[in-house]
Amino acid sequence: MFVPFFREFQQFQPQQWEQPQPQPQLLVPQAQPQSLQPQSRQAFRDSRNRLACHDNPHLSQQSVSGPIHDFGLESQSTFHGGDCAHSESMAVAPVRDDRRIVLHLDYDCFYASVFEVEQPALKSQPLAVQQKQIVVTCNYEARRRGLHKLQLIKDAKRICPEVVIVLGEDLTKFRDASKEIYHFIRSFIWGGRVERLGFDELSLDVTEMIDYNVELLNRNDMTTSFFHLNRNDPTVGFTYDATRYHGCTYPPSEGESPTLASSDPSTLEMRLLVGSHLMAYLRSQLEYEKGFTATGGISTSKLLAKLVGSVHKPNQQTTLVPPYEFTSDGKESNVIQFIDAHEIRKIPGIGSRLAQKLRTRVAEKNAGEEEMTVRDVRLCPGISPPLLEKTLGGPGAAKGIGQRIWGIIHGVDNTEVIEGRDLPTQISIEDTYGRGRLDSPESVRRELTVLAKSLLRRMRTDLLDKGDGNEEQPRWLAHPRTLRLSTRPRNAPETDGVRTYNANRISRSAPLPSLVFNLDESIDSLAERIVQDHVMGMFRRLHAEKSGWDLGLMNIAVTNMVESAGDQKQSSGRDIGKMFQQQESILRQWTVHESDDHLARKPEPEVLEESDSGWQDGDEDEDHDAPLLSIECNLCGAPIPHFAQQAHELYHASAEV
DNA sequence: TTGGAACAG
DNA sequence: AATTCTGTTCCAA
Predict the structure, then answer these.
(1) Strand B surroundings (CB within 7 A)
(2) Domain boundary at A550, A567, A584, which?
(3) What is the count of structural domains for chain A?
(4) Domain presence at residue A452
(5) How many CB atoms lie within 10 A of CB A347?
(6) What is the DSSP letter of A118?
(7) Most buried residue, A159, A252, A589, A632, by CB count within 10 Å?
(8) Measured at the alpha carbon of residue A95, what is the angle toward residues A249 and A247, in degrees to the nearest 5?
(9) pLDDT averaged per 10 residues, chain A (length 657)
């Protein structure tokens, strides 16, 4: 049986168990007089951003209701009026939706960390991960000695002769570690709202978890609050101090005590603050359970959380604190302040091409050339969504690009956190080749066979559903329908002027022969066959027989995944079961088990009996006999099983920053 | 559906 | 500047 470690039990009224209600799909603050707002909507109104007013000298800061210039914004904009003569052509600042709380996690020097976890002795050494002639990443010990990402191995060795170099061309272990961390973090997050970006970044939409916990805050005892990680089991969670942010803030807190301006539990500030504690908990769990440190950002969108996260690295976290909008008493919007200072190229979603186009356009009006910040773009005379659409649009450009960039330069990103998929949309294997390595058709065939073998192995590890450990034959979870071969010439066509980026891959595709799904045939023989019968044909389509092709890269991929029918429910059901099991085993450390010693000190709260059946099932019987060796944290008073002590100390230690 | 461009780490 | 080895999304044909 459990004895819940649960400090705020008196708050737990039965009707609160259903909280929070699903939030209305209300994207826009309605322009209603405050007095008409129902009290229950007040929290939304307060925490939501209204107009992102900006300091364009052409615009007055006074908000005036008036005609709406709709530049394709799905949401309504309040008109920012001022000088009437110009107002007709004036662009309207987009509206940010600040109802969500988004956490962004970025594992510190991920590839290097994978090796350090494998081999802890490496932690104290300068460590670089090599792919071909390049240091793709290195640990911070190496960075302290002047090494950095994407540095030539030559230079690295010269600058730091003691550097330990490990080969990282095979991404298998990174992919595996990435997946494991993803599932680990996702097991904490309600609704599975976790999006992967590359191997080493996650965005988490934790709105539901935050709203639920903010509702349950006890305003009379904020310093020993309890964060609930499980709606069905009030013993699961951690204690935290809800009078202060965990970790760094942007802007930095000034006074000695960075306490909350307002302890109103429904403000954006309180939601971000609670989010900062969840972030700290997740990071400490990640470090203790998996050995990876991560950098965190806390805000209301993927864009802002990611950007603010990178303010303090590594192994730290930063919260972008309110006000997110201009206030009546003249306080600046921290969002605008923050994003304004960034170089446009540094903004996620603005790559080299868009940055280039923006620079040339804005530079026409501005004197400044090389350095161009978001502020320069935002304050560019005449700038507006249609203008951006015109300058950034063109053949191939994404539709609505002007509106998107308009939002981004105002710190507005309303894109959703997408639930991670269980299957990739494509699997590709590539290698680069030095001079003379790919001279003959025979050598090409040989290398393509090597790639094909890797690809087939990847298909079997990633697309196959090995039964539940039984003797059942594995089943394909998805069938890619297309096979693609891409190549890149060695000599990047260094053409005239500014035009050249690395767009120099060419490809051919063909239907993927279904024989690759035959599990009875060996990968080696399968690879020989498809290279001979299919891939070489594609290669000939790409490169005429005679001409001396000079290739620096070859890539083969399977794309166009079609998920196998029928198995959907089964597999997702199993996933959830696994997730739950994992979460239970992780969270168990925070649940204090019955013991005479403990019962004597902390009698079971009476309220527990009412809801006893609600959250308890018999799963934990195996722990019944486990001896309890717990201590009490002298900082927050939480009882901690000994084996969780280190994690708990980490949690407090990172609070000091 | 195919092939490429642009984005990301 | 582009280097590695991937991966996603979008567009035009």
Answers:
(1) A 110, 197-201, 347-355, 396, 482, 484, 486, 501, 503-511, 541, 560
(2) A567
(3) 2
(4) yes
(5) 23
(6) H
(7) A589
(8) 10
(9) 27 26 29 29 35 35 30 33 38 88 98 98 97 96 96 96 97 97 98 97 98 95 97 98 97 67 74 98 98 98 98 98 90 94 96 93 67 93 94 91 96 95 96 93 96 98 84 90 96 49 86 97 98 97 82 97 68 42 44 31 31 31 30 46 45 45
